[in-house]
């Protein structure tokens, strides 16, 4: 059941267990918490609370990636995230910036962010990989095919695991060629991004193939629709987003047991408990 201990990414915390990344979406329209943390003071308070709950890092994003979402302008994105990154970093919180834009990544790192989480894996902005190489920070490369308005039209694969691994490996090669150090790279299959629920389950069921890419793996299953569908009521109503945190914690425990490096979650406390159980359990099996 248990894989090798988690890999690490240079420049980020390295507890002897799977990392827990807390989510702060500074957006009006993210699918599970859109509008809740749009005001900087609310976002800062939330990020501080996630850190106090034990988040190893806090992921701050200013662009919703829910299917169909329209992109904000660069200035709107900057206006949402920079004050939050700046204040959280000043408070000692380890922050990653969730952005597809090189200019946002650069300004966020200048404001104190320690890592760049790019859901497009460098595909959305041709300047991103060179910028991250220049900034010398950890880089999370997610599998992505298109922006939110069209991504679900591209959810077709011969074999989802083989295809995602191949496309991710291509993005990692591009990152390495751009000069990003291998020890700063983590990969992510991008659950829900150009994927159906069945694709997500297939990727979770065959995590070993992702781990075989040789880079630490991040998973973002938190509150996503495939969990809502799994837990639908007898009359077919999906489980509401905010009632999916126990299921998310279950995915965190199983991911940690499988050797995943980091889970990206909305409810940090539950997933921290989950990964701690997985870590302790793993020690007893070795
Ligand atoms: N999912 C979302 C946003 N950013 N980043 C990574 N690396 N992986 C993900 O799966 C991911 C992400 C969308 O979820 P949200 O709207 O709840 O933040």
From the structure above, extract its key features.
286 residues, alpha/beta, eight-stranded parallel beta sheet, binds pterin-6-yl-methyl-monophosphate
What features would you describe in this structure?
It is a single chain. The chain has 286 residues and is α/β, with parallel strands linked by helices. The protein has one domain: Alpha-Beta Barrel (TIM Barrel), CATH 3.20.20.20. The chain has ten helices and eight strands. It has an eight-stranded parallel beta sheet with strand order 6-5-4-3-2-1-8-7. Helix 3 (102-110) packs parallel to helix 4 and helix 9 packs parallel to helix 10 (268-285). It starts with 18 loop residues before the first strand and ends with a helix. Pterin-6-yl-methyl-monophosphate binds at residues 23, 25, 30-32, 65-66, 98, 117, 119, 140, 142, 188, 190-191, 218, 220, 222, 264. The site of pterin-6-yl-methyl-monophosphate has 19 residues, from strand 1 and strand 5.
């Amino acid at each position: 059941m248990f894989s090798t201990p988690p890999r690490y990414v240079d420049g980020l915390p390295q507890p002897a267990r799977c990392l827990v990344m807390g989510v702060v979406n500074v957006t009006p329209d993210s699918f599970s918490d859109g509008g809740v943390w749009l005001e900087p003071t609310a976002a800062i308070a939330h990020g501080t609370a996630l850190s106090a709950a034990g988040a190893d890092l806090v992921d701050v994003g200013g662009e919703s990636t829910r299917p169909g979402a329209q992109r904000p302008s660069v200035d709107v994105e900057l206006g949402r995230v920079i004050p939050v990154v700046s204040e959280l970093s000043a408070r000692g919180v380890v922050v990653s910036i969730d952005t597809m834009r090189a200019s946002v990544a650069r300004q966020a790192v200048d404001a104190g962010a320690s890592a760049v989480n790019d859901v497009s894996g460098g595909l959305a902005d041709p300047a991103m990989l060179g910028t991250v190489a220049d900034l010398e920070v950890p880089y999370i490369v997610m599998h992505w095919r298109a922006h939110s308005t069209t991504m679900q039209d591209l959810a077709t694969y011969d074999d989802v695991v083989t295809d995602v691994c191949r496309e991710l490996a291509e993005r990692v090669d591009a990152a390495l060629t751009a000069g990003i150090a291998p020890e700063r790279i983590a990969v992510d299959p991008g659950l829900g991004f150009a994927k159906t629920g069945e694709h997500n389950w297939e990727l979770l069921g065959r995590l070993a193939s992702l781990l075989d890419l040789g880079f630490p793996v991040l998973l973002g299953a938190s509150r996503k629709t495939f969990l809502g569908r799994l837990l639908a009521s007898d009359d077919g109503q999906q489980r509401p987003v905010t009632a999916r945190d126990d299921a998310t914690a279950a995915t965190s425990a199983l991911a940690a047991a499988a050797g995943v490096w980091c889970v990206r979650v909305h409810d940090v406390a539950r997933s921290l408990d989950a990964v701690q159980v997985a870590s302790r359990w793993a020690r007893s099996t070795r």
